[in-house]
Amino acid sequence: TPVENIYLKSPKIDQLFLIGDKREFITAIIIPNRETLEETFNLKSSYFEDADPFIREQEIIDWMEQDIKKISNELAKFERIKNFKIKRNPFSIDEGEITPTMKVKRRIVEKKYSDTIDAMYEEGIEAES
C-alpha cells in the first residue's frame, strides 16, 4: 500500500505489516533491517535465534520509534502507526507467512500473531485515555 511504502523508506525497516482494517487506528508488525540492527546494537547472530518472535528491548523499540514518528509526520492522522511490535526475523515462506512473491498472507499472519495484535490495540487505547 502507499502508506507501507512510505514507512519502508526508513533504512531501519525491511518489512512492514500494517493492521488497521475495521480498527480505530493503525498498528504494525515491523521487521527491522537485520544488518543495521546488528551494527547499531552490536548483536550476535544468536540474538536472532531466540524463541520469542518479538524484540522486547526498550532501547531497540525507542530506536525504531524515532523513524516511525518522523515518517508519521508526513502522513494524515488516520494513516499513522500508533503502536507497533518489532519481529525478530522476517516473515517466511516456510512458516506460511508470505507467498513466493513476498506478499504477506494477511489472514495467516493476523491469526498467528492475534495475541500480540490484540495487545497492541489495548496498549494503544490506554495510551489515549
Q: Can you tell me about this structure?
A:
The structure is a single chain. The chain is an alpha+beta fold. It has one domain: GMP Synthetase, Chain A, domain 3 (2-Layer Sandwich). It is built from five helices and four strands, in the order αββαβαβαα. It has helices at 2-7, 34-41, 58-72, 106-112, 114-128; strands at 13-19, 26-32, 54-55, 81-87. Strands 1-2-4-3 form a four-stranded mixed beta sheet, sandwiched between helices. A hairpin with a 6-residue loop joins strand 1 (13-19) and strand 2. The longest helix is centred in the middle third of the chain and has 15 residues, at 58-72. The radius of gyration is 14 Å and the shape is globular.
Number of strands: 4
Derived structural class: alpha+beta
Q: Widest sheet: strand order?
A: 1-2-4-3
The percent range for strand residues is: 15-25%
What is the CATH class designation? Alpha Beta
Q: What CATH architecture label applies?
A: 2-Layer Sandwich
Spatial gap, N to C terminus: 30 Å
| CATH third-tier fold name | GMP Synthetase, Chain A, domain 3
Average predicted confidence as pLDDT: 94
Q: Can you say what the CATH homologous superfamily is? A: ANL, C-terminal domain
Low-pLDDT residue intervals, each spanning 5 or more residues: none
Number of helices: 5
Give helix % range. Answer: 25-40%
Q: What is the ordering of alpha helices and beta strands? A: HEEHEHEHH
Q: What overall form do the CA principal axes indicate?
A: globular
Number of domains: 1
- Rg over CA atoms, rounded to whole Å, is 14 Å
